[in-house]
Amino acid sequence: MPKSKRAQKVTLSKTVSKGRERKVAIIDEVRDCVDRYKSVLVFEANNMRNAALKDVRVRLRSSRIFFGRNKLIAAALGRTAADAYRAGLDEVADGLLGGEAGLIFTDESLEAVQQ
Predict the structure, then answer these.
(1) How far apart are the first and last CA of the chain?
(2) Collapsing DSSP states into helix, strand and coil, what is residue 106?
(3) % residues pLDDT > 90 (the chain)
(4) Among candidates 68, 66, 88, which has minimal Cα distance to 78?
(5) Considering the entire predicted model, what is its pTM?
(6) Beta carbons of 69 and 84 less than 8 angstroms apart
(7) 1, pLDDT greater than 70
(8) Packing angle between helix 20-36 and helix 70-77, nearest 10 degrees?
């Protein structure tokens, strides 16, 4: 009797990594947003679903939202004052780490974003 192909395990050595280029592209995009937008906000999300995040993205079309890959985004901003891309961004990076958090780069007022 032939062996079933459904029960086969795939070893991790056969998976293809996404590569360093993708990480560098995300870092460049975050730094470009720092230069382009006048303010950045850190938000925390508890049980954030895709539909809720989609509604936020629709309402803030002129803004850029980064949600996920927080350690990579924190590295792009700079984790210490000496490594910071701009002054004060190391404090923003500290707010990202430790939970489900994201960044909103925007030119709108704080009240408009909170609504």
Answers:
(1) 64
(2) strand
(3) 14
(4) 88
(5) 0.75
(6) no
(7) no
(8) 60
Q: How confident is the model at residue 27 (pLDDT cuts 50, 70, 90)?
A: very high
Q: How many residues does the chain have?
A: 115
Distances (CA, A) of 26 to 19, 66, 76, 103: 12, 10, 8, 13
Query: Which neighbouring-strand residues pair with 39?
Result: 106
pLDDT band at residue 30 using 50, 70 and 90 as cut-offs:
very high
**Number of neighbours of residue 33 by Cβ within 10 angstroms:** 19
Q: DSSP string spanning 84-95?
A: -SSTTHHHHHHH
Q: Which residue has the tokens 């210490």?
A: 80
* SS3 at position 82: coil
Tell me the CA distances in angstroms from 40 to 47, 65, 93, one per residue in order: 22, 10, 11
Cα atoms in the 13 Å half-sphere on the side-chain side of 54: 3
